[in-house]
Write a structure and sequence with these properties.
- The protein is α+β, with helices and mostly antiparallel strands.
- The chain has a single domain, classed as TT1725-like (Alpha-Beta Plaits, 2-Layer Sandwich), CATH 3.30.70.
- It is built from 2 helices and 4 strands, in the order βαββαβ.
- It has helices spanning 18-35, 63-80, and strands at 2-11, 39-44, 51-60, 82-92.
- It has a 4-stranded antiparallel beta sheet with strand order 2-3-1-4, covered by helices on one side.
- A hairpin with a 6-residue loop joins strand 2 (39-44) and strand 3.
- The longest helix has 18 residues, at 18-35.
- The radius of gyration is 13 Å and the shape is elongated.
- The model has no long low-confidence stretch (mean pLDDT 90).
Length: 93
């Protein structure tokens, strides 16, 4: 079993309040959940209205499949918001 973890940092230049930020983050999370079988949550920068950190996790039997799912997820997120940084990790159990 392979657990793939993707941590994505978003930058929202136009967000002027936490409400603006929440709208963008919710939109990204909803689209990712509807398209891919992954878990996603906001995990950092909760009080900063221009940045957000998302944690995405996928469980698979093969590392190649987990890598493919996370890369497709990253592509979708970067088409919706400005990705300032990301990291990917795979854990074999």
């Amino acid at each position: 079993m392979v657990v793939g973890i993707l941590k994505v940092s978003l930058y929202m230049e136009g967000a002027r309040s936490l409400k603006d930020k929440r709208r963008v983050v919710r939109s990204v999370k909803d689209r990712v959940k509807s398209k891919f079988n992954v878990s996603i949550a906001e995990v950092g920068s909760l009080d900063n209205h221009q940045t957000a950190q998302l944690g995405i996790c996928v469980v698979s039997t093969e590392c190649a499949h987990a890598d493919s799912q996370l890369n497709k997820t990253l592509d979708l997120i970067s088409s919706q918001a400005v990705v300032s940084d990301f990291s990917m990790e795979f854990i074999n159990l």
